[in-house]
Design goal:
Elements: E1 2-7, E2 12-20, E3 29-38, H1 45-63, E4 67-71, H2 79-98, E5 103-106, H3 108-115, H4 123-133, H5 143-166
Parallel strand pairs: 1-4, 4-5
Antiparallel strand pairs: 1-2, 2-3
Helix pairs in contact: 1-2, 3-5, 4-5
Length: about 170
């Protein structure tokens, strides 16, 4: 299974592709690609959304994942920031839909619990555990890319648990 994780952000949107053979006796995670889409603050929102859409569509087409995993909306004190983040999520969901890719959504606490074992883990802890789980020689940078990999890992852990329950 190939999972494309997306961590939506108003300044940087991270992405990561992780694969695992869930039918193997002991499934191993493999990092196939990761990166980030940086948004120019001086561009209008519509241009930034278009840039995210174009980049994600290209990355998704190249990756040919089985599924896209994305973080669910979290509630923010700042309504304006939450709205902008929601627009970016919408663009990410649209990019997946345009390529007929299924989407799984996970709460931030579930993602961190799945990867770190603690739902309130700090970004540095997520980066460290992602590097460890994927046998990377260094921490994935930027942190948004590590978060996207964490989302993909969360989906693989969830799928592995569900597959084990069906056996």
């Amino acid at each position: 299974m190939r999972v494309f994780g997306i961590d939506c952000g108003t300044e940087t949107t991270g992405y990561g592709l992780v694969a695992s053979n869930l039918s193997a006796r002991t499934p191993q995670l493999h990092c196939l690609n990761y990166g980030a889409i940086r948004l120019a603050k001086n561009q209008p929102l519509s241009a930034r959304l278009n840039h995210i859409f174009d980049e994600l569509t290209a990355q998704l087409a190249a990756a040919s994942p089985d599924i896209v995993a994305i973080e669910e909306v979290f509630y923010s004190v700042n309504a304006k920031s939450a709205l902008k983040l929601g627009q970016i999520r919408g663009v990410a969901l649209l990019a997946a839909a345009r390529l007929n890719l299924p989407v799984a959504e996970y709460a931030p606490l579930k993602i961190k619990s799945s990867v770190v074992g603690y739902g309130l883990a700090q970004k540095e802890q997520v980066q460290f555990m992602v590097a460890r789980l994927l046998n990377l020689s260094e921490l994935p940078q930027p942190a948004d890319a590590a978060d996207a990999l964490a989302i993909a890992i969360c989906h693989l852990h969830t799928a592995e648990t569900e597959a084990g329950q069906r056996r």
